[in-house]
Specification:
Blueprint lengths: L16 H15 L12 E6 L4 E7 L9 H13 L14 E7 L12 H6 L7 E6 L11 H7 L3 E4 L4 H8 L10
Parallel strand pairs: 3-4, 4-5
Antiparallel strand pairs: 1-2, 1-3
Amino acid sequence: MASMSNPPRTSSSDPHPNNHLEYLQCALEFARKSPPAPTNFRVGAILVNAQTDAIIATGYTLECEGNTHAEQCCFVKLAKEHNIPEERLEEVLPEDTVLYTTMEPCNRRLSGNKPCVERILGLGKGIKRVYVGVQEPEKFVGENTGRKRLEDAGIVVVLVEGMEKEILEVSTAGHVLELGA
């Protein structure tokens, strides 16, 4: 898998680098609310207005009805708050909205639901930067090529280092260990 690197700050509206771990810690607290299960990762996500450092929406795996992912829950809840379909969220998102998620957004879902990468891309220019705590392990769908799709669309994806062990412990709670692993 290609490694992600931390690009230099390109805008005064980017969250301060010292805040990245704080936002990921917040997202991790939401991930802890997700019920442990052998068939999914426990992920937390938050949408942040980078100009004001205000949290716009939060979500965690299985928070909303159905087999929902953390990013999806952020979008569903925010759309409901504004009484618009998810596809129109770009209209209400602040110009410098960034997404923090404990695990990189999925590019493929075995459930048949729309992958989180497609949801992000469906927001047009609504989200220009995504901060992730870990890359998605290849356990369920193989290599996640969503990062490339996001970057090809002009969205910057940044791996924030420093919480990998803790995030993986939370995200894989409930998974059955394979013998010989």
